[in-house]
């Protein structure tokens, strides 16, 4: 059973891997010559890559409804995988690409009513080269409409997407971003009487130069009640000063200087 589960997860990731391979960046001879002449300028410092949550426009968290697990089937009737940024440029018509989690039997989000939102989470990704100079800066939004009802019940999702807002990439670097919603992540977190749709939206980011690549994945759990939570991040959890051996004494400076 464990082996079958692992195979299912790997299978769900294959389309995204194929997409990334098809969008491998190509560099000009001038870029390759420049990288050879000054490798530190054209090498990403992996420790410098950061993502910051700039703003949130979303409802306050609510309590989960009912008992998890029911026979309601929720499906994605829209896109499963799409490009967001390719070779430093937003993909054409990216704003028309989205995922939706609606009950089986619905052929369009327009068959549902009482939609709310959209909820919007704005992020900024930055990266620097080995000299400490910023080479990549991109602002993007995770957006979705929520709370749609079908036959006067449930809370479903539509318009789940990632939209690039501002993209700045230095010459000699290539930025690519893509989104993916595996079917296996679309579930009902509510009950048969009161369904609560949920899905996992994966954002894959690649920063490349002639000399080095950085790849990172973020996964967002999005619910039909308007909530969103990042459940996978390419970055380790930030340590507080009090959590480190060197930082603990600094929380009580009087003891440090009393020695």
Please work out how many helical segments DSSP would assign.
3
- Outline the low-pLDDT stretches: 1-14, 17-21, 66-71, 238-259
The helical percent reads: 10-25%
> What is the domain total for the residues?
1
Tell me about the biggest sheet?
Answer: 7 strands, antiparallel
Give the overall average pLDDT. 81
Distance linking N and C termini: 59 Å
Count of strand segments: 13
Helix/strand layout:
Blueprint: H1 2-22, H2 29-37, E1 50-57, E2 74-75, E3 81-86, E4 89-90, E5 99-103, E6 116-128, E7 134-150, E8 153-169, E9 174-180, E10 187-188, E11 197-208, E12 213-223, E13 228-232, H3 253-258
Antiparallel strand pairs: 1-6, 2-5, 3-4, 3-9, 5-8, 6-7, 7-8, 9-11, 10-11, 11-12, 12-13
Description:
The chain is mainly beta. The chain has one domain. It is 14% helix and 41% strand. The strands form two sheets. Strands 3, 4, 9, 10, 11, 12 and 13 form a seven-stranded antiparallel β-sheet that branches. Strands 1-6-7-8-5-2 form a six-stranded antiparallel β-sheet, with no helix packed on it. A hairpin with a 4-residue loop joins strand 11 and strand 12. The radius of gyration is 22 Å and the shape is elongated. Residues 1-14, 17-21, 66-71 and 238-259 have low confidence and may be disordered.
Please describe the structure with a list of short key phrases separated by commas or semicolons:
disordered C terminus; six-stranded antiparallel beta sheet; elongated; seven-stranded antiparallel beta sheet; mainly beta; 3 helices; 259 residues
Quick structural overview:
With 259 residues, the chain is mostly beta strands. The protein has 3 helices and 13 strands, in the order ααβββββββββββββα.
């Amino acid at each position: 059973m464990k082996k079958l589960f692992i195979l299912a997860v790997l299978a769900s990731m294959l389309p995204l891997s194929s997409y990334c391979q098809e969008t491998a960046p190509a560099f000009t001879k001038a870029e390759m010559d420049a990288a050879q002449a000054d490798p530190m300028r054209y090498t990403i410092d992996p420790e410098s890559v950061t993502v910051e949550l700039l703003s949130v426009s979303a409802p306050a968290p609510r309590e989960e409804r009912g008992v998890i697990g029911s026979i309601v089937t929720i499906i994605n009737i829209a896109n499963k995988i799409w490009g967001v940024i390719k070779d430093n440029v937003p993909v054409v018509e990216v704003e028309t690409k989205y995922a939706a989690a609606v009950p089986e039997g619905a052929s369009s989000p327009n068959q549902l009513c009482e939609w709310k939102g959209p909820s919007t989470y704005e992020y900024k990704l930055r990266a620097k080269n080995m000299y400490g100079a910023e080479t990549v800066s991109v602002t993007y939004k995770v957006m979705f409409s929520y709370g749609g009802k079908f036959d006067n019940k449930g809370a479903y999702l539509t318009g789940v997407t990632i939209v690039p807002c501002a993209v700045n990439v230095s010459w000699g670097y290539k930025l690519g971003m893509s989104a993916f919603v595996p079917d296996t992540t679309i579930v009902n977190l509510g009950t048969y009487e009161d369904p609560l749709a949920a899905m996992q939206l994966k954002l894959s980011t690649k920063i490349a130069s002639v000399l080095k690549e950085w790849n990172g994945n973020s996964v967002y759990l999005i619910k039909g009640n308007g909530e969103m939570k990042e459940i996978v991040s390419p970055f380790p959890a930030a340590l507080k000063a009090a959590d480190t051996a060197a930082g603990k004494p600094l929380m009580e400076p009087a003891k440090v200087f009393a020695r």
